[in-house]
Amino acid sequence: MRFEELPTPCFVVDEALIEKNLIILNGIMQRTGAKIVLAQKAFSMTAMYPLIGKYLSGTTASGLYEARLGHEEMGKENHVFAPAYREDEIDEIISICDHIIFNSFSQLEKYKTKALAAGRKIGIRINPECSTQEGHEIYDPCAPGSRFGVRQVEFQPELLEGVSGLHFHTLCQQNSDDLETTLNAVEEKFGPWLPQMEWINFGGGHHITRDDYDIPRLEACIRRMQTKYGLEVYLEPGEAIALNAGYMVTSVLDFHKNGIEIAIVDTSATCHMPDVLEMPYRPPLFGSGEAGEKPYTYRLGGPTCLTGDVIGDYSFDQPLKSGDRLVFGDMAIYSMVKTNTFNGMPLPAIAVQEKDGNCRVVQEFGYQDFKMRLA
């Protein structure tokens, strides 16, 4: 199938671009001995797991279902962190996860005996209270009032028996200078307990495969923890695996005018790319410009009843017409995993663009996928 023959709306993941990212990540692993695992919360397209498993050490999960997915579909190291674990799920989590990270000492006390008896490595998430983000408090685990990680003031070293590692996650789409800043805070607040640990997990949010990312600085941060404390280092990026490696193909359905030219497309921001509204951000669109940059400007809106279901304002060299196909970039991460069926919107198909340029649809959805979620 050619790209232009794909149904719309459709997510398309480029196999060659995924592998390009994986080669970069694997190079870091080879040079430093650190382990990198896929954070499935950002990208959990199981059709790509065999390829990802060739290059990375495994997966990390945010709960039971992601843990099962990583265990069943990749079958390598399987890590999990949750703000709190359910009693009716913890036994299965322990049975399939190698590293179990607790968010509090109360959760640690409640479940560590079971986890250790099963031979699992257990860790505690720390909050170094070091915010390095600007303008995205919703994604800042160090924001005031955050529910993530133990702060220094609540740290209980007398309960560390059996704990083999510390975990922190403070970044979101950031470079390694912010990691370096965070490590300084980690050492300042939790340095006394690092020598008794076996491993440290730097969490996610590392934009390692971005063109301007400072990989040598990252590797220096890794070696710092290895040489100074003898720690095994883990990283769990999600976006870096599929950054700039996917597309959303959509079709123009109709037009409307209300002080601005509006094009209605068959892709919904609220249903198919909700980070456009949550972050918020304006996704890249191939062949377009900023509003007013090119002769013809349109506001691209989705087909739902939500007034704010707007993808953004874009300009084009030629007027749009019904049936035109538009291609948004960087649509593999935090898109497929967040889709929903509000208003009965059909979920987009999912396709792979293979290395030879051919495309194949690996999943399509219909009415039953909407109906089955309702009672």
Explained architecture:
By secondary structure, the chain is an alpha/beta fold. It has two domains: 128 residues, Lyase, Ornithine Decarboxylase, Chain A, domain 1 (Beta Barrel), CATH 2.40.37.10; 210 residues, Alanine racemase (TIM Barrel, Alpha-Beta Barrel), CATH 3.20.20. Strands 1, 10, 11, 12, 13, 14, 15 and 16 form an eight-stranded mixed β-sheet that branches. It has an eight-stranded parallel beta barrel with strand order 2-3-4-5-6-7-8-9, surrounded by five helices. α3 packs parallel to α4 and α6 packs parallel to α7. The chain is elongated, with a radius of gyration of 22 Å.
Number of strands: 16
- Helix content range: 25-40%
Instruction: Give me the CATH architecture of the largest domain, please.
Output: Alpha-Beta Barrel
Q: How many structurally independent domains? A: 2
Q: Quick one: overall form?
A: elongated
Secondary-structure class: alpha/beta
Question: CATH top level of the largest domain?
Answer: Alpha Beta
Strand content: 15-25%
Please compute the radius of gyration using only Cα atoms.
Answer: 22 Å
Q: What is the CATH homologous superfamily assignment of the largest domain?
A: Alanine racemase
| Count of alpha/pi helices | 11
| CATH fold group of the largest domain | TIM Barrel
Low-confidence stretches: none
Rounded mean pLDDT is 97
Order of helices and strands: EHEHEHEHEHEEHEHEHEEHHEEEEEH
Distance between the termini: 37 Å
The major β-sheet equals: 8 strands, mixed
